[in-house]
Write a structure and sequence with these properties.
The complex is a heterodimer of chains A (about 220) and B (about 210). With about 220 residues, chain A is mainly α. Chain A is built from nine helices and no strands. In chain B, about 30% of the residues lie in helices and about 25% in strands. Chain B has seven helices and ten strands. The chains are: A mainly alpha (about 220), B alpha/beta (about 210). At the A-B interface, helix 1 and helix 4 of A face strand 6 and helix 3 of B.
Chain lengths: ~220, ~210
């Protein structure tokens, strides 16, 4: 039997290869998210100072909605037969959870980068301390991916429709989205980013511990 | 002379799903080297029985031991890697090629990927190894599942309606796999609605009716 991290690597590789072939995130969700960002100025008008002020918030709400969409798709894409196989292969459910979070985090990071460029161009957002984004983007992506996977597993164990996933993800992601919005805002207005980064790290850690500890019980009730 | 303990020993097993009693007071013993068939009509509980033996469902009542592990305890997680299971819906990743699906299996189980070409050859899929699963017919997907179990070489093989969508040459693959497992001291449990198709390759067959073996 392979080690925990070998199993994590195998799960990441499998999920990324599946996404590369299916292209749902890159060819459907990304353009759709960019269009959503484009629609906001049409709705609120092209008042640049206003767009600049509300831009970070809008961006993170779009990330949340499309992150939830990705989670729904990924939950629906796994069949009961595939879940049975994963159990019988003896893959540690915690390794499976970790691998899926890492793959989901990478995909969401990619989504954030593309949508982020669109948002900066459309809303004229100034990011003086942009290198902080190298921390903000993955912390948010991993958190949302973890939430999506835990919510997906709960939905499956309750024998409910994947449509329930966003209902679970949206309220639980509030601290993450608030921290991401505030930290991005701080990058253009100045101030200390550390409390918001700390909040994101705490949320991610809580999700990681919850995901790892509930992975086996959730797998067994599916 | 030592007598090997049964690989499957179910005593008064009951499985309840929702409000329905799917299996009731079911007794079953399968010894090392045996191939056992269970046949029954749709809804008689065949798949539930197989999933229970595969440790994927916990019995609601009774006592069950599979490969020495109690079905009600955490021991069952440890024996899962020794159980091969082919359900009637293929457990393959449709976006991956047949070879990539098998590589995933060898990667997570620590087996060598050098046996993949031989396994694909055995099931007659050598020329389709780089074809995506969603571009393969149902019959080819079933063959790929047999290739997976050839790679895994389980001690206990569970087959759900193994003849579905398979042509005559593929039936030989089922027989080959059943022979390979039983001859190496393992056991095979097959469920099917068609008694006549499974009986010739097995030691014995029983009928499952309304969740009970007769």
């Amino acid at each position: 039997m392979m080690s925990f991290w070998d199993q994590v690597r195998a799960a990441v590789k499998r999920d990324l290869l599946r996404e590369r072939r299916a292209g749902e995130v890159f060819w459907i969700t990304m353009p759709f998210g960019s269009v959503a960002l484009l629609l906001i100025p049409i709705a609120v008008g092209t008042d640049l100072p206003l767009l600049r002020r509300i831009g970070p918030g809008i961006f993170w709400i779009v990330v949340l909605f499309f992150g939830a969409l990705i989670a729904v798709r990924r939950t629906g894409a796994e069949t009961p037969a595939q879940r049975d196989l994963v159990a019988l292969l003896g893959i540690d459910p915690a390794a499976s959870f970790t691998g899926r979070v890492m793959a989901g985090g990478l995909l969401l990071s990619g989504f954030q980068v593309v949508a982020g460029i669109v948002a900066v161009l459309l809303y004229d957002i100034e990011l003086d301390s942009w290198p902080w984004l190298f921390l903000i983007v993955p912390l948010t992506a991993v958190g949302l991916a973890g939430l999506g996977i835990v919510a997906g597993a709960i939905t499956i164990s309750l024998n409910a429709s994947p449509a329930l996933v966003p209902l679970l993800v949206a309220p639980l992601s509030v601290p993450l989205v608030v921290a991401a919005t505030e930290s991005t805002d701080v990058l253009s207005t100045g101030g200390s980013i550390l409390p918001w980064l700390l909040l994101m790290i705490v949320v991610d850690l809580v999700l990681a511990v919850t995901g790892v500890l509930t992975a086996r019980p959730l797998q067994e009730t599916q | 002379m030592s007598i090997d303990p049964p690989l499957i020993k179910l005593r008064s097993i009951g499985v309840r799903i929702g409000a329905a009693n799917i299996l009731r007071e079911l007794d079953l013993t399968v010894l090392s080297g045996e191939g056992v068939g269970i046949y029954g009509d749709n809804g008689s509980g065949k798949t539930t029985l197989l999933r229970t033996v595969a440790t994927l469902l916990r019995p609601s009542s009774g006592r069950g031991m599979v490969l020495g592990a109690d079905l009600a305890s955490a021991e069952r997680f440890k024996v899962r890697t020794r159980i091969g299971f082919i359900g009637h819906i293929p457990a393959l990743y449709p976006e991956l090629t047949l070879e990539e699906n098998l590589k995933f299996i060898t990667r997570v189980t620590g087996k060598s990927s050098s046996s993949i070409p031989v396994a694909l050859e055995t099931v007659g899929l050598s020329s389709a190894s780089s074809r995506r699963v969603d571009e393969c017919s149902y019959g080819m997907q079933r063959r790929a599942e047999f290739a997976r179990e050839i790679l895994r070489s389980p001690d206990l093989l569970l087959l759900d309606e193994p003849h579905t969508a398979l042509d005559a040459s593929a039936i030989e693959i089922v027989e080959y796999l059943v022979g390979q497992v039983t001859e190496s001291g393992g056991a095979v449990l097959i469920v099917s609605h068609d008694r006549d198709r499974v009986a010739p390759m097995l030691s014995r067959v029983s009928e499952l009716k309304a969740g009970m073996l007769s």
